[in-house]
Amino acid sequence: MFDIGAMELLVIVIVAVLVIGPKDMPLAMRSAGRWIGKVRKVSAHFRTGIDAMVREAELEDMEKKWKARNEEIMREHPPTMQTSSGAQASAEAAGSSLIAKDTGAEPHEGARAGGSADPGAAPSDPDTPEKA
Fold first, then answer.
1. What is residue 116's predicted lDDT score, i.e. its pLDDT?
2. Is the pTM of this model over 0.70?
3. For residue 118, what is the enclosing H or E element?
4. First vs last Cα of the chain: how many Å apart?
5. Which value, to the nearest 10 degrees, does the dihedral of the CA atoms of residues 36, 38, 40, 46 take?
6. What integer pLDDT is reported at residue 78 of this predicted model?
7. What are phi and psi of 114, to 5 degrees?
8. CA nearest 104: which of 80, 79, 131?
9. Of 3, 36, 45, 123, which sits most exposed with the smallest number of CB within 10 A?
10. In this structure, are residues 67 and 59 in contact, taking their beta carbons and an 8 Å threshold?
11. Contacts for 102 with CB less than 8 Å, ≥ 6 apart
């Protein structure tokens, strides 16, 4: 912020000793130190307040973007309504039939439940096809 070199600092110290005097110099330095400390505290408080306002503005902006993107996704992919558990079961059965057609396997009870027909086998991920 302020660029004070060694020569400038030496000139300031010499002028201060001549103007204030060597006897009152420690008191003047203590007072200057207190004032500098107060200025730093006020500056830090001000900076913290500005940073908080910037963060809040960024959060509001991100929330607007997320809300707009969510609305866009909901328009592209509207939610489907299931009225009864029978309709849900028939949708699951239709999904297992489609998986069976893609993989060439026969649909069975385990495929509809999301696991394999063998009770000892580890459950497989429904999104990845099983290897033969």
1. 47
2. no
3. none
4. 70
5. -150
6. 85
7. 95, 5
8. 131
9. 3
10. no
11. 129
Instruction: Report the alpha-carbon distance of residue 40 to residue 105 in Å, rounded.
Output: 74
Sort 111 into a burial class: Cβ within 10 Å, 0-12 / 13-18 / 19+. Answer: buried
Q: Which two tokens stand for residue 86?
A: 């029978």
Neighbours of 110 (CB within 10 A): 16
Neighbouring CB atoms inside 10 A of 126's CB total: 12
> How far apart are the C-alpha atoms of 100 and 108, rounded to whole Å?
9
Q: For position 4, what pLDDT does the model report?
A: 78
The candidate with the shortest Cα–Cα distance to 39, out of 87, 5, 2, 78, is 2
CB contact burial 52-62 (16+ within 10 A = b; e otherwise): eeeeeeeeeee
Cα–Cα dist 62/116, whole Å: 43
Distance between CA 96 and CA 25 in Å, rounded?
90
Residues in the chain: 132
Distance in angstroms (rounded) separating the CA atoms of residues 32 and 25: 10
